[in-house]
């Protein structure tokens, strides 16, 4: 007898298994990443309908399996249609899913990540902003313990307001003054936006119109996330080789 359990999750991705079956990867509220088989999901009259598409937020009834679970029931928590209403929303949603997929671990509960994911998808659906994804990445990194230092030079500690902090170095984890600078340049406007995102002024950051500064913050967010994921993969590989 396999064990039945309930959970709520967001579909991160799906892939074809057999003719009419699909493997669905969820990040769930209570069980972390779950891979489950959805039988008959590819048939036109599937009992799951279109509810197991990427970005779907669903209440689930699952059978626990040794490797793959089995989806017994899936019921939408909220409609998926707003996420698919514009190309911009859909691509922001997919960028968010990809990041969560990389950070979520199999059967390792991470309810905070689940709440962040549901929150950002709702924000994307309701409030289009050029910084939705970047803000999510920075908050995700902060939650992973990678909050960058933004108010003083990471090397010399200089924090006088008249000293310009002009660079951002991923290896050092923050900003640098002119004499210590390494990494890449960061403009004063981008630094202000980044401080808003991480300093509890998210609403004002999300209200920013697209500008060179928001592009800078977005590009840096992507690089910071990649840097963090790569370093984490290396750490895992190091542990596994011992
Ligand atoms: Zn310095």
Verbal overview:
- By secondary structure, the protein is α+β, with helices and mostly antiparallel strands.
- It contains six helices and eight strands; from the N terminus they run E-E-E-E-E-H-H-H-E-E-E-H-H-H.
- It has a five-stranded mixed barrel. The protein has a three-stranded antiparallel sheet with strand order 7-6-8, with no helix packed on it.
- Helix 1 (87-103) packs parallel to helix 3 (132-143).
- The longest helix has 30 residues, at 212-241.
- The model has no long low-confidence stretch (mean pLDDT 92).
- Residues 153, 155-156, 158, 176-177, 179-180 line the site of zinc ion.
Bound molecules: zinc ion
What is the helix tally?
6
Supply the helix-strand structural class. Answer: alpha+beta
Helix content: 25-40%
Low-pLDDT sequence parts: none
Features:
242 residues; alpha+beta; 6 helices; three-stranded antiparallel sheet
What would a concise description of this structure say?
The chain is α+β, with helices and mostly antiparallel strands.
Task: Record the SSE blueprint.
Layout: E1 4-16, E2 22-28, E3 32-38, E4 57-63, E5 69-78, H1 87-103, H2 111-126, H3 132-143, E6 165-169, E7 174-177, E8 184-185, H4 188-198, H5 202-206, H6 212-241
Parallel strand pairs: 3-5
Antiparallel strand pairs: 1-2, 1-4, 2-3, 4-5, 6-7, 6-8
Bound molecules: zinc ion.
